[in-house]
């Protein structure tokens, strides 16, 4: 299991549709990077200036929208994840 | 529903008039980006250095003026939104 | 009405004389941008690190000197305004 | 009267001698910018992180040394002033 | 023994497999830098703005994922280590 | 007298030997800038984030080592001084 | 004696072996800069945002590992030292 540190979250990106509307399968580099994902694990929180931890706003299982290209890609147990700072998460989809 | 994080707000931009005064319909790229919008959802507030949240000044339903090009464009449920930091909102129109 | 956010102020610039001393009317781009203006509306104040708001020093009706090129130009109800951060206001003229 | 904001001061620069030692009057651009001046007005002080104002160290009437090229030049009532941040004032001459 | 300072950790990188799937041994520069490692020693913690130390989240013996190219490489007692700031550690593998 | 502001100190640089070991007098630009000096005056101290002044560590009369090229050169009463931030003073020679 | 200021330490670098394994004495510029040293003197500590000093983690006599090229080289009493910020010290060798 991956336990992110601090204000980080582990997100499993939702793959965008791999066919264009005309039905042509695009090669990998032509696809836009995913912007939506599911939170798999969250860190212990933001460390404030006076040394306390503030719990993150997002929780395990949340569907989130995040900035394109944000975070670090990581292959773990054969699956691809992103490790993002909560700050790169724009919104939760409810 | 989109719930923005922290000091972010979701704004639905007000489309600017698509015809110039001479009546010519401009192609998409020639139009100035919208500067006005309606707040659809607001985040939980700014996290201060000592770990408290301060509620945002803008509220759902407000008409706001925001910096051109600020924020991230997002298509959700077929509509286009912007996710802005409150700091990019210049003023509320009352 | 425009209500600026936080440490911002709405200023109506004082138009500088549009004729040069020789009486020639200059085209728009040759004029120096205005440096003086009248405060039309002020924000709710600066948000400090511990989450309190400190009222601005400038008040509605003040004549102010501000940095050339500072702020964002805004056309509202047919008039031109500037939205500035108080930090771009150099001095009040009394 | 000019009342500077925050940590700013209004300084009237002391003109440096306009002739070189050989007696040649230099054109304007060849002169070194003034480094000494007299404080005409001071702001209300530095706003600290916890929202208090700390009075400036310099006072009206002080002779000060300031960084070359610092601040904003301002013509007011036919005289030339500089608006500087106190941080650009290096020392007081006593 | 190496005792890292402050928010630093000493990590022994896990060597990635030196053969590609086709069985060809790659020269050193073609290999991707390791992203996983074992924590050998941890610093005394983060120094907060009010002068207290907050213990690190990672502990000796943890398996960690860290940013590629982060930290400083160090040869000590014939072995290669990395000294990283805890901030460059993305997650703990449990 | 020069009274530096805040965390600044006025230093009289110790002139380095103007002859090289071979006895040749070097032109001005070939000499390395002085790195040692004597503190002539000190400011009122560092202003902390909560608005208090912390007295400087260096005192009038101290011999100090400072970063090459740090600070602002100043000619005052015919003598050359440097105004440095205390942060540019590396060590006191005792 | 050199007394460093604030968060600085004076380090006497440990000279790396001046011969390569093949026995050739390398000219000065070809040698890698030292990464290990002995702490000769330490400053009074880090000044926190609320104006207190926090003692450094390293102490006189410690063997330390520090970033290559960090700090300022200083010749004093015929010996070569480095003045480093504690932040450039990576670890203590125990």
UniProtKB/TrEMBL annotation, chains A, B, C, D, E, F, G:
Gene: groES
Stored CDD domains: cpn10 (cd00320)
Subunit architecture: Heptamer of 7 subunits arranged in a ring. Interacts with the chaperonin GroEL.
Primary localization class, coarse: cytoplasm
Entry's localization field: Cytoplasm
Molecular function, one GO term: protein-folding chaperone binding
Domain of life: Bacteria
NCBIfam families the record matches: PRK00364.1-2, PRK00364.1-6, PRK00364.2-2, PRK00364.2-4, PRK00364.2-5
Assigned protein family: Belongs to the GroES chaperonin family.
Record key words, sorted: Chaperone, Cytoplasm
Record function comment: Together with the chaperonin GroEL, plays an essential role in assisting protein folding. The GroEL-GroES system forms a nano-cage that allows encapsulation of the non-native substrate proteins and provides a physical environment optimized to promote and accelerate protein folding. GroES binds to the apical surface of the GroEL ring, thereby capping the opening of the GroEL channel.
Protein name: Co-chaperonin GroES
InterPro entries, per the entry: Chaperonin_GroES (IPR020818), Chaperonin_GroES_sf (IPR037124), Chaprnonin_Cpn10_CS (IPR018369), GroES-like_sf (IPR011032)
Cited HAMAP family: CH10 (MF_00580)
GO cellular component, one term: cytoplasm
